[in-house]
Amino acid sequence: MIAVDVMSGEKPPEVVIRGALKALEEFNVKIALVGDEAHIEHCLKKVQYDNKKIKIFHATEVIMMHETPAVACKKKKDASIMVCTRLIKEGKAQGLFSPGNTGATLVAALMNIGRVDGVLRPTLGIYVPTVKGASLLIDAGANMDCTPEYLAQFAIMGEVFARRVQRKKNPSVGILSIGGEKTKGNELTLKTYDILKDLDFNFVGNIEGYDIYNGDVDVIVCDGFVGNVVLKVTERVFKLTFEFVGQEVQDHLLQRIGYAFLYPAVRKLRKKMDPRMYGGAYLIGLKGSVVIGHGSSDATTVYNGIQMVNSGIKNRVNELITEQLEKYGFNKKKNSSGDQKA
Amino acid sequence: MIAVDVMSGEKPPEVVIRGALKALEEFNVKIALVGDEAHIEHCLKKVQYDNKKIKIFHATEVIMMHETPAVACKKKKDASIMVCTRLIKEGKAQGLFSPGNTGATLVAALMNIGRVDGVLRPTLGIYVPTVKGASLLIDAGANMDCTPEYLAQFAIMGEVFARRVQRKKNPSVGILSIGGEKTKGNELTLKTYDILKDLDFNFVGNIEGYDIYNGDVDVIVCDGFVGNVVLKVTERVFKLTFEFVGQEVQDHLLQRIGYAFLYPAVRKLRKKMDPRMYGGAYLIGLKGSVVIGHGSSDATTVYNGIQMVNSGIKNRVNELITEQLEKYGFNKKKNSSGDQKA
Fold first, then answer.
1. Residue B276 confidence class, pLDDT cut points 50, 70, 90
2. I need a surface site. Which of A213, A217, A269, B21 has the fewest CB within 10 A?
3. Separation between Cα atoms, residue A264 and residue A277, nearest integer Å
4. HEC profile of B221-234
């Protein structure tokens, strides 16, 4: 069963429910809608849906977008996202989708869902658009201060994800650094390089910020601080470019007309450039398949997100992660030493 | 006197010399042209220039763009950039401009030019285009692994630079982090925040990657790893946006025409978005005013770069840095402890 947090997004619950119902029909999955029971029932009646596959779990509270994650999760024990994560803890659900507050989903998941055996730190993977399709940026903002062991595990988990969920054959893995040469980087990336170079997968070494969007590297590994900065700079520069074009064309009629013609393309691109519109960010390394969708997820994005959750469950991402971590010797022993910065 | 490395850029020496002569005329500065003497004399004859203000310093070698900085600087003791930095060391020049290999200029400067009293690490400041003019990103790639004390010094030096060279009144200083709240960040930025909040300047706290280009913060502080990633992601996303627009409009005649109309604006923007086209990156904290120009600097960019060098000298940036570091207690004592990671 997949728990769907219908309350926490920016769009009304109906929209999330519609996406969930579409996923239910197409993937033959069991869905638990989590939120205000009366309102959910009202929505289901509105769309004339009455299916025994659907379960409703009542939640009395909602964590809003603007709330501080740690504070909100402690205070609102009965928030929809808290109920979703408890369903996984209790073994009733195997995964969850939430279009809500990223930080709150992260905190709730870390509070209620255990780590996969051997995993030092769960991490956030996100699809980034490239000229050759989507690559995976990992960590996209969950872990600020990382050790080389964390980053090496992100690489291993990301590789498994790209193989199992993105269906890539022999996905390539690179470290985000300041240049392609193996001597380029900071202490963290240099030490991570030393670990990854000996692993038995398609490690391609360092790549620089310029090359993220070339699509030559399937899994791009960095700490969550750098990942956050990359995503936000990307989002801003993309918009800024059009702002600057708008400024430039002001005094030129022909250029202004040209720009107007482009509007449909620009609108389409806005969606393409928003990583979370692919379905969501995937929280990897937890005993459950957790996807955090964009706050403004429409029914299609919710559907894509639930597909991602389902794919993580069906393709046994977590089992393979445990296997790989054991294979590479990232067992409990390393766990304790690597954990010191917790 | 300002030393100008005429050999290391991607453009022919004539171009650099033309920019240098223009600066010489306008700012009434003494210029030393550094490179192959015979070739420089030939160029001067070609532009019919014969002025006693110009000195020529012969250099037998050139460090090329593709060379590894540390290796090249050790091997080519008589490279033009090495001669330039020695002129400063010997007190013959007070500053230098080079359109060459950034890393090599950095290494040569660190080898031959001493640090300003109290400075833990010289740093690279670069102008970034924003919707409200240029802000200063510091460190733009010189220091990979930083302590909070380094970052605090970058903030102090950047503030002096913005005040003295960019002529900003009471420039605002922010830390690049993952969100605006003071609790957001990694260990490095949180500890830097703790130092900066007590200093007597316009500290505005944390800003996120999204806000770099808003122009609300004049001096944006980060470590050189993050700075490098920001600059390269910016450069790439800017180009990528146009690539994606190009892909999108392929099948739509009207949109294709619209895009064609926009070409002049796009070309103009390319220059605007390239930080080094403003003149160059400024190496702050050395006993000399050092600007590293873009490899493809044309005469105007060289002229702008030399203006920047000159402004650093005339406005006594280094004196004020020493003063400020003393004022805030960043004296030799802190120097020794902060230096442990050297």
1. low
2. A269
3. 18
4. ECCHHHHHHHHHHH
Strands in B59-199 per DSSP E: 95-98, 123-130, 133-138, 173-177
Q: Check: CB of residue A229 under 8 Å from CB of residue B176.
A: yes
- pLDDT grade for B336, boundaries at 50, 70 and 90: very low
Look at residues B281, B325, B342 and name the one whose alpha carbon lies nearest to residue B118. B325
In this prediction, residue A100 has a pLDDT band, given cuts at 50, 70 and 90, of: confident
Q: Are B294 and B319 in contact (CB under 8 A)?
A: no
pLDDT at A280: 85
Q: Is B207 on the interface with A (CB under 8 A)?
A: no
| CA distance linking residue A47 with residue A24, whole number of Å | 14
Best of B107, B176, B233 to disrupt the A interface (most A CBs within 10 Å) is: B233
> What value, to the nearest 5°, has the Cα angle with vertex B209 and ends B305 and B264?
55
CB contact under 8 A, B255 and A265: yes
Using a CB-CB distance cutoff of 8 angstroms, which residues of chain B are in contact with residue A237? 213, 233-234, 237-238, 241
Q: From CA A122, how far away is CA A287, in angstroms rounded?
A: 10
State the ipTM, two decimals: 0.90
Average model confidence (pLDDT) across chain A: 90
Q: Per the structure block, which two tokens stand in for B88?
A: 């400063």
- Tokens encoding B104: 């090599």
DSSP H helices in B94-147: 102-112
User: What backbone phi and psi angles, to 5 degrees, belong to B133?
Assistant: 105, -170
> Does the pLDDT value for residue A69 go beyond 50?
yes
Pairwise pLDDT comparison (A98 vs A246), residue with the higher score:
A98
Q: Do B230 and A209 make contact, defined as CB atoms within 8 angstroms?
A: yes
Mean pLDDT of B174-194: 95
Residue for token digits 């990992």?
A: A138
Q: Which chain A residue has the Cα nearest residue B176?
A: A229
Distance from C-alpha of A303 to C-alpha of A21, rounded to nearest angstrom: 8
The full set of domains in chain A, from first to last, is 1-122+285-318 (3.40.718.10), 128-274 (3.40.718.10)
Question: Which helix H or strand E contains A228, and what residues bound it?
Answer: helix A224-249
B137's CB contacts (< 8 A; 6+ apart) are: B125, B126, B127, B128, B212, B220, B222, B227, B230, B231, B275
A218 CB-near residues (< 8 Å, 6+ apart): A135, A136, A162, A166, A168, A171, A172, A173
A203: β partners: A173
pLDDT band at A266 (very low <50, low <70, confident <90, very high): confident
Q: Residue B187: pLDDT above 70?
A: yes
